[in-house]
């Protein structure tokens, strides 16, 4: 019940409730208030694939709420000795109260949730889903635009392997977003996702051209072309560096438009954008802390006070 | 000439009629009757059918297919009619049911799915998204399965 594997695990009302809770927890996330709601609870941070933001923000979220964190990575654990995910999860079930898992294989989070009793949060499964990233993305968008309803959102880059765009597009169409998917042909959003988005009433436009949609966008969501997901390096070289958003590209953009990126970035988002009023990606990365705090509390059935006083 | 006269009547066993034309071999594979069995099997393919235009028919002697086997059949021939034959007579008509999920019947075909590790012990699980057109998706990785190739992934 407390699992979060894909965005289908949350209704729109639940999404908004989590975002409200995340906002209440902002002073705790910043370290201005200590609120030990999760004292005595242990989070298993299971990262079988590299991570900076997801891992650190989950750890910060748990610690700022008074909880403890166990870290496990594939290097230096029995995973390197060939232990199955099922067996590893049986151990975690005994050692932790909740776990976040990132894994290179798609479906690993759902598989883990089926293998154990404790709640599982999907921290990214291969090119599948990344719903906790989506929640912090939605938090960032809502804080900037005041609502999630009816926005014009551009997603740019690797939409084939980019799990953040898979989960985010699923959530946004439920709030009536118009989505422009910008990618080279070889990195198009997978068909099953596009057909799901359309069947949920989404207005989807697919193009290879980035510049035409910038001026009408409320959100530009840039993504990195992920070298590590390409089966063949030649294929990667053909598309690497195909998109690069610079300050100059934003001259006609709406005043309130925000540029987001799940990070890390390589060349697709030029440092010249950092100093514009549109840049929101570092704020977005911080937003992982209050959002993941709210998600941890939800999964553990812990109530969050409406107002957190300093 | 009626298609049923193309093969002799069987004494005991199972007759599967109204298989989509050209799919009888896939049905045998799906039912795992294509190798290592000694039951006599008669097959007619591409015979005229009032309902379907053309169809295939299978008769499997001395073997009554059980419900689990018939449910597998639903993936390829959801409209097939199945009769259990005893002493040359139709003793029972069985229906084919396409449920909402397939557990340990078919493996996910996606190479990066967690279930590709043969040592992982949880059952293979696929969800039926729609019957017409047939759409099947892995419960774990969410990838759509290619229905034309699904027999290659039976367990």
Automatic annotation (TrEMBL), chain B:
Residues that, per the record, bind Zn(2+): 108, 113, 138, 141
Domain annotation Aspartate carbamoyltransferase regulatory subunit N-terminal: ranges: 6-96
Domain of life from the UniProt record: Archaea
Domain Aspartate carbamoyltransferase regulatory subunit C-terminal span(s) in chain numbering: 102-150
Cofactor notes: Binds 1 zinc ion per subunit.
A Pfam family that the UniProt record links to this protein: PyrI_C
Molecular function (Gene Ontology), one example: transferase activity
GO biological process entries: 'de novo' pyrimidine nucleobase biosynthetic process; pyrimidine nucleotide biosynthetic process
Reported cofactor(s): Zn(2+)
UniProt entry tagged with the keyword tRNA processing: no
Any one annotated GO CC term: aspartate carbamoyltransferase complex
Record keywords: Metal-binding, Pyrimidine biosynthesis, Transferase, Zinc
Family: Belongs to the PyrI family.
Functional description taken from the UniProt entry: Involved in allosteric regulation of aspartate carbamoyltransferase.
Subunit structure and binding partners: Contains catalytic and regulatory chains.
NCBIfam families (alphabetical): ATCase_reg (TIGR00240)
Protein's name in the database: Aspartate carbamoyltransferase regulatory chain
Annotated source species: uncultured Poseidoniia archaeon
């Amino acid at each position: 019940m407390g699992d979060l594997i894909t965005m289908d695990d949350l209704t729109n009302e639940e999404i908004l409730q989590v975002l409200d809770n995340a906002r209440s927890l902002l002073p705790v996330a910043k370290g201005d208030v200590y609120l030990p709601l999760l004292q005595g609870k242990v989070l298993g941070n299971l990262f079988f694939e590299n991570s900076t933001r997801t891992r650190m923000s989950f750890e910060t979220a748990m610690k700022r709420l008074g909880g403890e964190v166990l870290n496990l990575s594939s290097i230096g654990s029995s995973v390197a000795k060939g232990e199955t995910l099922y067996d590893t999860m049986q151990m975690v079930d005994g050692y932790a109260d909740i776990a976040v898992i990132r894994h290179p294989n798609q479906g690993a989070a759902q598989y883990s949730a089926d293998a154990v009793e404790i709640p599982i949060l999907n921290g990214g499964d291969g090119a599948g889903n990344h719903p906790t990233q989506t929640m912090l993305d939605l938090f960032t968008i809502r804080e900037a635009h005041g609502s999630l309803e009816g926005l014009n959102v551009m997603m740019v880059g690797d939409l084939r392997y980019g799990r953040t765009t898979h989960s985010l597009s699923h959530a946004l169409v439920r709030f009536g977003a118009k989505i422009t998917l910008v990618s080279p042909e070889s990195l198009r959003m997978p068909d099953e996702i596009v057909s799901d988005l359309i069947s949920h009433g989404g207005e989807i436009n697919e193009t290879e051209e980035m510049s035409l949609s910038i001026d009408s966008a409320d959100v530009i969501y840039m993504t990195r072309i992920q070298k590590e997901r390409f089966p063949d390096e030649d294929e990667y070289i053909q598309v690497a560096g195909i998109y690069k958003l610079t300050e100059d590209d934003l001259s006609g953009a709406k005043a309130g438009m925000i540029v987001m990126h799940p990070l890390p970035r390589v060349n697709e988002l030029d440092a010249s954008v950092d100093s514009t009023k549109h840049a929101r990606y570092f704020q977005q990365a911080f937003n992982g802390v209050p959002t993941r705090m709210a998600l941890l509390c939800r999964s553990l059935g812990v109530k969050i006070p409406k107002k957190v006083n300093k | 000439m009626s298609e049923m006269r193309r093969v002799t009547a069987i004494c005991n066993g199972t007759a599967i009629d109204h298989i989509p034309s050209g799919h009888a071999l896939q049905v045998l594979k799906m039912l795992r009757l294509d190798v290592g069995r000694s039951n006599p099997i008669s097959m007619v393919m591409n015979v005229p059918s009032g309902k379907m235009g053309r169809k295939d028919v299978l008769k499997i002697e001395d073997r009554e297919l059980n419900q689990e086997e018939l449910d597998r059949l639903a993936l390829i021939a959801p409209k097939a009619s199945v009769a259990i034959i005893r002493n040359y007579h139709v003793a029972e008509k069985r229906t084919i049911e396409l449920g909402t999920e397939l557990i340990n019947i078919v493996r996910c075909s996606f190479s990066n799915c967690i279930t590709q590790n043969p040592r992982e012990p949880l059952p293979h699980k696929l969800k039926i998204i729609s019957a017409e057109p047939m759409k099947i998706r892995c419960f774990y990785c969410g990838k759509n399965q290619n229905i034309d190739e699904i027999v290659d992934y039976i367990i």
